[in-house]
Amino acid sequence: MSDTIAIAPDYERLYALAATQAGYFTAGTAKHAGYGWALLSHHARTGLLRRVSRGVYRIRDYPSSPHEELVAVQIAFGPRAFISHESALDVLELSDVIPDSIHVTVPRWRRSRPSPPGVTMHTVTRPLAPDEVALRGSLRVTSPARTIADVSAAGLAPDVVGQAVREAISRGLATPATLRRAAAERSQRVRDDIERAITASRR
User: Tens digits of per-residue pLDDT, 120-177?
Assistant: First the structure.
């Protein structure tokens, strides 16, 4: 005889859980509100819920919010996923660049997971340190200094890197020291680009 206790479906609880993530939730989260796969599928067919991607759903009538599509990608990749690169620049308002896809950084062991259309996946071999991440609402993003080092390493134009450095320093989101630390393990080109941008920001 199973010791598992069935949980009655509780829409208010499901809504409250989804509200912490811009209206999105995973099938795993839904179980805590008594919604199994069959019930999720039923409500997705009838329109109460919207299936966004494999295992990710959204409350159909939940109010829209800025960057909500990034939240959906983030929860699809799990708690160790961070919005990064140009997408993080956009969230942090460090440049005028419009991302051509949603950039997300995940552990290297997740690289076998296919990226959904419109998503660019980056991988890291070690967990990001606390000072390499930041929270913006329900979004986990790479910190300003980490983001700038990432986009420079990815080949973003030096003038864009320079703009991001100026914005980060002027708004108190990063210091020359934190920017240099973020660039320390990158290529010489990245270190030089960021150093030039720091020097230019003082003029």
Answer: 999 999 999 999 999 998 899 999 999 999 999 999 999 999 999 999 999 999 999 9
Cα 168 to Cα 133: distance, rounded to the nearest angstrom = 14
Among candidate residues 162, 166, 132, 127, the one with its CA nearest the CA of residue 147? 132
Q: Bridge-partner residues for 136, per DSSP? A: 139
Distant-in-sequence, close-in-space partners of 102: CB < 8 Å, separation ≥ 6: 69, 70, 73, 83, 87, 118, 119, 120
pTM (predicted TM-score): 0.86
Residue carrying the six token digits 């209206």: 23
pLDDT tier, 112 (very low <50, low <70, confident <90, very high otherwise): low
Nearest to 101 by CA among 77, 69, 134: 69
Closest by CA position to 22, among listed 113, 137, 103: 137
CA–CA dist 140, 122 (Å, integer)? 15
198 contacts 161 by C-beta, under 8 angstroms: no
